[in-house]
Structure formats: C-alpha cells, structure tokens
Amino acid sequence: MLMKCLVVDDSRVVRKVARRIVEDLGFTCDEAEDGQKAYEFCQGEMPDAILLDWNMPIMSGIEFLEKLREMDNGGSPKVIFCTTENDMNHIQRAIQAGANEYIMKPFDSEIIESKFAQIGLHP
Amino acid sequence: MKLTDFDIYSNLLKTKSGLVLTEDKVYLLESRLNPVAKKWGYNSLETMTIALQGVPDKNLVTDIVEAMTTNETSFFRDMRPFDMFKDHLLTYMKQARGSARRIRIWCAAASSGQEPYTLSMILKEAQAQYPGWTFEIVATDISHDILDQARAGLYSQFEVQRGLPIQLLMKYFTQVDGQKWQISDDIKKIIKYQYFNLLEPMTSLGTFDIIFCRNVLIYFNEETKGMVLDGMAKRLAPDGFLMLGGAETVMGLTKEFVTLPDHRGVYVLPNSPHLQKKVETPGAASPLGSGSATPAAPATSAFGLPPKANTTTNS
Questions:
Q1: Which residues does B106 contact at the CB level (< 8 Å), separation at least 6?
Q2: Tally of domains in chain A
C-alpha cells in the first residue's frame, strides 16, 4: 500500500516543490495550508508522514504538532519540521513536542530523502 | 540566481561533464561558484555569468566544471558502511581487543572531515559499552586546505543536514553566527588529522584495526590502486578490516585483500580469521552469523569467534 505524506505549508510554491519530491520518493501526497487545515485532515485519516512548516496563519506548525500528539493515534505519523527557523531553541522545542526530524530551509530533494530514510520512512 | 542564469550553467555542465543539474541545486551552484568568480576577479557571480555568455576563457570554463563536479561528501555518507561499522566491525573488535582496550582507525581520505567525525560520533554514542577504552582515528588527506577545513569542524547549514540525524546535531554541534555549525571538541579529540600522500611509504602510520578508504581509489589508475592496497594490507592488523566505497573493489588489483563474504564493501587479509567458514554444514550461517545458527555449526562463527548462544530463555 502506498504511504501517505501530508505537506503543511502556507506557501503554494513550497507545497508544490515538496509534493514533487515526496511523490518522487513514492508517497502519495496531500496538502494543507495551515495547522488548522492539517488538524482537520488528520481527524479524517492519519498520514504516515507529515512535512510541517512552522510559521503559518491561523494555527502554527508547533501548535498543530502539540494537538496532533494528543489525538487518538496521533503518535503514529512521523513528523518532519521544514522551516526557516534555524536556531537551536526552535529545534529543541520541536523535538520536545514530538517531531521526529527537522529540516532547515532551504531544502533540496537529497535532504528530504536522507531525513526520511533516517527515521525509517521508505515507501 | 535567475532561472536564465541557472540554464546557462546547467547547459555548460551537461555539455562538459555530463553532470545533470536540477533546479533544487541552485544553492550548490552559488556556494561552489562564488569562489571561482572571486578567483577570476569578477565582483559577483552575475558578472561572471555575463562574461560566460561571450567567448569565455577556456580555463574559466574548466574551473567552473571542476568546482561543480568535485565529489561531495556528507555525514553518514551512504549510511550502510557506518551501520556495518557499528553493528559488526566494532562488535567484533570489542571482543577481540578486550584486553588491550584500544582500537585504531585510519580514514585514508579525510576530506572535509565528515567521515572521521561520523565515526567519532558513532564511537561516542557507543561509549557506555566501552569503559576504559581508547579510540584513535588517524585522518589523512593530500590537501592541506581541506585538512584545515576538517580540523576547523565548521559546517554550513546544508552540510549538517546531509545525512546527519537531528539528534546528533543537537548533541554534538553548536551554532555559530546563525549560519554555521561547529562540531564539539569532544568529537574532535580522538581524531588526529595529518597530511599524507597515499603513494608514499605507509610504515610511519603504524598499524590499524580498521581502515576506511572510500571513494579514493576511483581517482587512481589500476597500477596505483594495486600499490595503495598492497601498502594498506601491511598496515592492517591480521584480523582487521578494510572498507572501500560502493563503486570500488580489490578484485584484479591486489592479492593482499579478499572480499568478506556477505559483507559488501568489507575486505580482509587472505589469512584473516574471518574467512574460517563452517564448510561442513550446508546452509549454515554466513561467516558473520547473520543467518540462523544450526546445531551442527562448528565452534567458529561470526568473525571466527565462538558463536553467541541463540537462546533467549533463562538467565
């Protein structure tokens, strides 16, 4: 069965680039433009992986992650932050909130692929 | 960088080297080409790009192609060799060097330091299992410049994201000026960087338990490859291991090394204890004991050591 990846980012361009990369890796891809939309998506079905921006309107990535990890089955998706926030404080906060990996933008396909592989995401 | 500029470089590289550059590599283009622009006296990458569209100096084109095709290295490059190191080679050495409590490793192409630092981080993570042990990594390279870089242990945001798990970044690096990441002294201290040309006599380096020589031989001709391998065989402990890169082999180059069966990329000396196979039992476990042990298996198992008991019950 195909693995599902949810890309959460308020930039349509980033979503488009990320979609192409994760689809090349063999995932099916869904998109959400903020944390709230992502939360609603996860209420319907849990994806296998979530690529998550930090700064978004309505609900930020970190707020979404905290809410996700409290949901039934919310521990199952592997969450990879993908953000311009590139300081140690943000990284530590994300990992404490339950993120599995952390990508500092800008990214390329190799970075995404290697981060996915490290946390055992092989579609 | 403008998309049209990107096309100019990607077309140039495609024609000159066969290297295909995708758009997500814009950052690579910029970080690699800025030094070239500087060297050639252009005040910016843009100015160099304009010059390229006229009749460019042949040597400038060569410099650009070289800058772009230089082999990239990364932390945990290819991952598998490091799993092999951690799960098999180190596990063997733990038993075999139990009395001396000392393991010496040679990184024969240290480059900008990612490989020795990766090994050092693996050893650090495993430290609790090795109380009182001494690890030494001798990391050599033929370029003084790259050795200085390795010694500095300062990496860009891109470099620390290539293959390095975030947990290890958090543990062993500190951020400098927002954009650079500095590896900790704790990881540095077991590594001895030194200039060394692989074509010179190797005796002065001493004896090693494990040699990493990955993606170096590909730059040499057949005769030189054989010479380097012969030299390394003399620097390896009788039960030591040599790790080569994924595209490299010893076959047809030397008689001093043989492939360790079922362990791609790992080579041992012809008289190595690791080659004592359990021949009598058809379908017996591989020399490393990766398969299931059969009752008929003789006394030597993984790496020629007594097999570990497979029982999971009782004490």
A1: B137, B138, B139, B140, B205, B208, B210, B211, B212, B213, B235
A2: 1
